[in-house]
Amino acid sequence: xxxxxxxxxxxxxxxxxxxxxxxxTRRYSQCGSFELKAIASPENTELLQVGNYIWKNDDxxxxxxxxxxLSQTDEESITVSGRFATVLLGRRIIWNTEKLNxxxxxCIAQLINNNVIAPVDVDRQISNLSFTAPFLSxxxxxxxxxxxxxxxxxxxxxxxxxxxxxxxxxxxxxFTVTLYIGATSQAVFSKEYENxxxxxxxxxxSNYVNTVKIGGEGEGEDNRxxxxxxxxxxxxxxxxxxxxxxLRMEDFPTDxxxxxxxxxxxxxxxxxxxxxxxxxxxNHSNLTYKVDYDLGQVVQIxxxxxxxxxxxxxxxxxxxxxxxxxxxxxxxxxTELTIAQKVKSDFSQITTTLGAPTxxxxxxxxPNNWSNLQSFAGGVMISSAxxxxxxxxxxxxxxxxxxYYHVARVVINGSFxxxxxxxxxxxxxxxxxxxxxxxxxxxxSSFDTISxxxxxxxxxxxKSPILHSDIKVVKSTSSSRAIWDIYVWLSDYGxxxxxxxxxxxxxxxxxxxxxxxxxxxVPNLPIVSDAFLYDGETFTVSAVDNGTIRTQAYSESSEFYxxxxxxxxxxxxxxxxxxxxxxTNGVNMVFDGNEIMTRNNGSPSPMYLNLEGGPVCVNGNATxxxxxxxxxxxxxxxxxxxxxxxxxxxxxxxxxxxxxKVGLTVHLFGACSPPAGATINSGSxxxxxxxxxxxxxSYDFRTLCQGSGSNKWLLVVGQNGNCTAARxxxxxxxxxxxxxxxxxxxxxxxxxxx
Length: 754
What we know:
Number of strands: 52
């Protein structure tokens, strides 16, 4: 990593050769910052001036020096700090009233274009700066004026969980402001995996609100227009008032109530529960920064010791460089507001409304008493927890028997409803299991269906995999509604902890564990035709099925070591293949449980196995297996390999016995001499040497070979590998064997594939 310095014209003026420390803090929805301390050499003091830019050659963004301090203790030092180049937006206000109505990217582009890139007053223009962003499908309805431009954009990004950065091009000095949404990473962080050095988990509900009353246009309780967002019961309900009198009905004549609701959702997003991890990454672990994880990505963090598991976005990464090397500090999830943010949140008039679901988190104080979770248009996300215990005989519960744990009940009303949900499951006992259960319920007037999938991560080797039968899905119907019940396996003497996240995308009810932690033994599971009463209606069980399992397993160090996919038959035209490499309309290879096939746009295509590599070995190695397209090369029979006094006919390599296998064909070549007095001049065979496994025929191979003069002899290569000589002579057996006989051979035989 090298530090380059650019002047205010963004021209390169030098490199910081050495420094005491550098802290480089990247932030997802906010402007990043940095601090650098170095020796106050003449070169450094000339380079590190307020208004200049610092750029790391391994980063996209550049930092603007806003603060400088020279000090002297034992030696003179210079300290500079500042924020990333996105801070240039903070030098402008929203000069006029801006009415925005469109996609998030389009609205941000309008603000930046009208106040930075191409303002009416050319004196306000900042040159060599542009904006680009993809279409984000997040609608914005907004009217803003006179606010600080950067503050307003950061508020929008925070509420919509959108990232912002300003990419620097050092060759041209050009800045490009861009928006992005971080992808989902497969990285799993845990002290148990040794990829974290230090960790701090914080959950703060002091400013948390889950219910708001939004007051719009009008005066007095009877004449003012109100909207409401309600969640929670009793002590768990936390209320606030949102003053939205600035929103006038004449500006939103067709959707004024929705506009008030969106204002309330924006406020709830600001006052959501603080729930975050701050960690120091082990740079020598299985996860590599900017390869396995990066700013803005959604990852999983687990602390089994603390009983905490969360899926969260990386909101901040601090890179520190000093004499000890590099260290990485990461913040996952929503952090607490700073004092400045709290003041701004409490007293500023927020006129922004977002049309995207903002995510309302609900905490249930009593883990064994959950409530109905009502959905509403636009969606709501609710986080909760539930505990089941199979360790007591109270109430007739036998802890020695496994149970099924009733996780959730989904009630579908009407003709078109959808509910999606997700559970993190931790089960102990003699068969411990850890996994994530995802479900999706969809109902129309013509059909009902449910898809339950379990994406399982076995975080340590001693955890058992979740099986299809570990998830039971029960469908029941009445004359007007459908109910889906989800049960999860709990082993004997087990305790289960379920942390749920539910995204209710349309109307319907998700009732979490309505039976208050009921555990059902296997014989007591519902069966087809069972009837029960719910909410004054009679429901009849119409189907009971297992879940669908997709498994990913990790070793103790979080290294991926197993992938299990559902099995579906492949064909030349199949599209739902378990595994496919290549595009369907070109050359591709597909796999199922017992087939591998190469295709080209629905037609047969050649398959090349190890084309530029070595032999293809089947059912063994290159020696013991079936070898296709391979060549072992010549293998010589060594002196110590000869038996019964036989030797090579000559001392050199020319006639030394040897063998070679090319594919399934073995070539045996050479010449031997028997010892004097050998009994090869009879029908009794004598072994000369033995071929190793992989070079032996599956049946005895016999051939007549030439001997000395007009003599002949019988060579037999046995299925046990013994190469024998017998029947030496002409029309009759030779009268005696002198030891000078020449026994040449050059034969080929096949190795049976079976």
